[in-house]
What does this fold into?
Amino acid sequence: MQLIKIIRDSSARIQAGGKQQRQRGFSLLEMIAALTILTIGSVVLFSWLGQTMGQLNRFQLQEKESLARLQAIDFLSTQNPFLTPDGKQVFDSFSMEWKSKPISEVRETVSPNGGLGLYQMSLYTVQVVAYDKAGKSWFEFPVRLVGYKQVRQPAKATPF
It folds into this structure.
């Protein structure tokens, strides 16, 4: 038994001296190279992620502004600038003010039978300013609307 152990020990020494022994683990140089490659890849990845998050935030703000514009336009479509030339409105996520100015002269409408109609009308430019919840000016835009006012009553129908 003792003899087998001596033979094994001498055999291991011979293999180590003859460079036949296999290396176990990584060398320091290999470890530094791997960490350098990993670091460069991480820097590129995090830079790309930062740009992507910035773009996502800008898109979200643009979407929020577009939805607010649509809501403002939808509300203004129910307003008559001839009767309400300016005003304020508060919504859930923003508020707005508008002021309108006529850009055409007041005209009479025409009835279906060719006579004078019941209304007078004019075209208006409405300037809208939107404010965020803190009251800071957010965006503004103009829109054109038709204003009208009833000036005549309909004629009473005469029986045959």
User: Anything to note?
Assistant: The helical segments are 2-17, 28-76.
